[in-house]
Design a protein that fits this description.
With 111 residues, the chain is an all-alpha fold. It is built from six helices and no strands. It is elongated and about 75 Å long.
């Protein structure tokens, strides 16, 4: 069970003494709910997936940096770099002002 849940309960119970008497019952109920959540989380992999999703942008940045740090030895390699540049760059800060149509034309010429 998450400690913050009990802290929230304790804050509420400070103003309502009748709740203090039910703390054990509430704690037990919260633990049961948390156990069901943890079981379901393990079964479907929710937390693991969320963690991987959070790490994905850093992994993508490393892969892109590695790609552009590698010397291109063929037109296929140049084409691949242009594909990545266009795919990643189109969502970047430059937005519409960057010459995306021109890069796409160069990519077609290389292909």
């Amino acid at each position: 069970m998450r400690i913050s849940s009990l802290r929230q309960f304790d804050e509420l119970a400070d103003d309502l003494p009748s709740l203090c008497a039910r703390r054990v019952e509430v704690t037990s109920t919260l633990r049961a709910h948390q156990q069901r959540w943890d079981d379901a989380d393990r079964a479907i992999g929710y937390s693991v997936t969320r963690q991987e999703e959070a790490e994905a942008p850093d992994h993508e940045e490393r892969l892109i940096a590695g790609l552009f740090a590698t010397d291109t030895a063929s037109l296929f390699g140049l084409s691949a770099k242009l594909d990545v540049l266009i795919a990643v760059g189109a969502d970047g800060a430059e937005g519409r002002h960057f010459p995306w149509p021109e890069l796409r034309r160069i990519r077609r010429d290389v292909a």
